[in-house]
Design brief:
The complex is a heterodimer of chains A (317) and B (290). Chain A contains 14 helices and 4 strands. Chain A is mainly alpha-helical and 317 residues long. In chain A, the strands form 2 sheets. Chain A has a two-stranded antiparallel sheet. In chain A, a hairpin with a 2-residue loop joins strand 2 and strand 3. In chain A, helix 2 runs antiparallel to helix 9 and helix 3 crosses helix 9. Chain A is globular. In chain B, helix 1 runs antiparallel to helix 10, helix 9 crosses helix 10 and helix 9 packs parallel to helix 11. Chain B has one domain. Chain B is mainly α. Chain B contains 11 helices and 2 strands; from the N terminus they run H-H-H-H-E-E-H-H-H-H-H-H-H. In chain B, strand 1 and strand 2 form a beta hairpin. The chains are: A mainly alpha (317), B mainly alpha (290).
Chain lengths: 317, 290
């Protein structure tokens, strides 16, 4: 019974959010949209880190590339999401293919450093050259539309992002169940054995890297459509660090963990930088956030889901 | 490009490369020996630069005394930090190390902002190194930059002697090639770790102190140097000091000449270099097969 419940819980949450949508205040709705976009971003990294065991510290690059592709392609006329979305996802996937092909030649700590360095390279492309307006970034004049739906509307934004999140979650859940997902899990647990069994390990890892990049591109597209502005900071390595933190915070190896982590991290950041909650410390939120990160990783290496498991008498989450 | 310009750029490249080497050698040693990936290593460079800013009024013209004092302070800081924090990271996986040292960066940055604010500060070049000398008919080169290169060469040579010619160095090399075996042979590995870590912090800090009069002291300076050092370590091969030296100089030249010849895309030069090395030798120039 409990197992069943866990299966339907994400769907129930999505339905509940969909029903609540129209009643939310503009601030709440905006906040939830932000968290949902970050959840998609975190889910895309979960495919890489949690499911395949590849720790990437450069995932923000694909997020940023998706966002930049959207804004650059929509130009001053705006455009239809029917072609902007595939373009953003495709651009991110193409970049992920190149970066993945190179960085997957390395492993372990090398992989961490190489992905970080490539992301930084992408950052410099947008920061130093005139392609994307340099360090100031660029504005999007007209938000994407799809037929009668206009992303300018708060409600359309909310439901488009909610649908994307549900789609991403569903896709990753399917991948987990599939042969492909099983192969990725095998690579995570024992790469040597998978290779000996005859699996083309490199190809599998590259496929996971490209899918993760594409999904990050989707999150980037949604972010650009929500904010209407992009700047190079989207690709900065702090963003890659934060999204990695989200999936750890939630609990590695669970799709719920990525979403939970995105929610918890955003709330934590919001909380630590609000005067009403922490008083004058709010000005130094980086300090408190840093301490919180260190303490959290030290005490709860399995994340919030691990905590729930420890608290529940049944044991396994 | 005339000969004078070329010479000046070569000197700049060597000077930048050597400075990078000081930071990267600590990073590569700490990883090679303790297996810890330390994102906060760039913060030690920043620590050095701010130390130079804070100590200059106290020491006045005694720049060398200030450097020595800074090295001692940084080493003591590193020793304490290893004891209080990093020694708990060895048993954890890379992912947790990345996150915890990332948290540490946030803490360091905020403490820096509380102590020194977010303004860009300048550090005066010591008067006896002020001015420049002529190079060719048109160009001149500041004495201080020459001093910086010389100081880095002295430090690099000292590092070479310690690592290759002393008993401590032997233990360090042994630790880098097989940690468990060294522990098995009865060497106090915790003490070794602490010394290596303190030395790494001191090297990064001294690089920051030397760089401060040339590049001003600004928030976020640690992050940018950290990522360039990752590139250096990847190109050179993890755990190899010789590799780090070769890679630092290579990166110094590519970056300096890239800025001059392809100003528009100069930020990308070293990453392209890294990509080329990865295709050719994924384990780095002097690294072991991975």
């Amino acid at each position: 019974m409990q197992r069943r419940l866990r299966h339907y819980l994400p769907a129930a949450c999505a339905v509940l959010l969909a029903l609540l949508g129209p009643t939310l205040s503009p601030y709440m709705s905006d906040f939830i949209v932000k968290v949902m976009i970050l959840s998609i971003f975190a889910l895309s990294l979960e495919l890489l880190v949690g499911m395949t065991g590849l720790v990437s510290l450069g995932h923000a690059a694909f997020y940023g590339i998706g966002a930049y592709a959207t804004v650059l392609a929509s130009g001053s006329e705006g455009g239809s999401a029917a072609w902007l979305l595939p373009l953003a996802v495709g651009a991110a996937a193409a970049c992920a293919l190149v970066v993945g092909a190179l960085s997957l030649r390395t492993r372990g700590v090398y992989f961490i450093m190489v992905t970080l360095a490539f992301a930084q390279m992408a950052y410099f492309v947008f920061h130093d050259t005139k392609v994307g307006g340099g360090s100031d970034g660029i504005y999007m004049y007209v938000r994407p539309t799809l037929g009668a739906l206009d992303m300018e509307s708060r409600y359309v934004q909310f439901y488009v992002v909610l649908a994307s999140l549900a789609g991403t979650y569903g896709l990753l859940a399917l991948i987990r169940q599939s042969r492909f997902g099983a192969a990725l899990a095998g690579i995570r647990v024992n790469e040597q054995r998978m290779r000996a069994t005859g699996y083309p390990v490199y190809g599998y890892k590259l496929a996971a890297f490209v899918i993760a990049g594409a999904l990050a591109g989707l999150a980037g597209f949604l972010l650009a459509a929500r904010d209407g502005v992009v700047n190079p900071e989207l690709l900065a390595w702090h963003n890659s660090g934060e999204v990695l933190l989200m999936i750890i915070l939630g609990g590695l190896g669970h799709l719920r963990g990525a979403v939970l982590g995105a929610i918890a991290f955003t709330l934590l950041k919001e909380l630590l930088s609000t005067h009403a909650f922490v008083g004058p410390l709010a000005d130094h939120w980086q300090l408190t956030l840093g301490i919180a990160i260190v303490v959290f990783v030290a005490l709860l290496p399995k994340g919030l889901i691990g905590l729930a498991a420890r608290l529940s008498p049944r044991g396994t989450p | 490009m005339d000969v004078g310009t070329f010479l000046v750029q070569c000197l700049n490249a060597v000077q930048y490369g050597l400075l990078l080497f000081l930071v990267a050698s600590g990073l590569t040693l700490i990883f090679g020996i303790m297996g810890v990936i330390n994102l906060a290593h760039g913060s030690f460079y920043m620590l050095g630069a701010y130390m130079a800013f804070a100590l200059t009024p106290l020491f006045g013209d005694n720049f060398l005394v200030m450097l020595a004092a800074g090295v001692l302070l940084a080493a003591a800081f590193g020793y304490l930090l290893e004891w209080a924090f990093f020694s708990y990271l060895y048993q954890r996986d890379h992912l947790q190390q990345v996150l915890m040292t990332y948290g540490l960066i946030l803490i360091f940055e905020e403490v820096r902002s509380i102590l020194f604010g977010n303004d860009v500060h300048g550090v005066k070049v010591p008067p006896w190194l002020d001015g420049s000398f002529a190079l060719g008919s048109l160009m001149s080169y500041p004495w201080y930059r020459l001093f910086a290169s010389a100081a880095c060469i002295v430090l690099a040579a000292a590092l070479y002697v310690v690592v290759n010619r002393t008993r401590l160095g032997m233990m360090i090399r042994a630790g880098a090639s097989n940690r468990d075996m060294v522990r098995g042979l009865g060497i106090d590995i915790r003490k070794l770790y602490r010394i290596v870590f303190a030395a790494g912090v001191a090297l990064a800090a001294v690089a920051g102190m030397i760089a401060a009069p040339m590049s001003s002291v600004y928030p976020g300076m640690g992050g940018s140097v950290l990522i360039v050092c990752f590139v250096v370590v990847v190109i050179g091969g993890i755990g190899s000091i010789t590799g780090a030296l070769a890679a630092s100089l290579l990166v110094g030249f590519v970056d300096t000449f890239g800025k001059m010849l392809f100003a528009e895309v100069s930020g990308m030069g070293i990453y392209v270099l890294m990509a080329v090395v990865l295709i050719w030798r994924p384990e780095g120039l002097m690294g072991r097969k991975i």
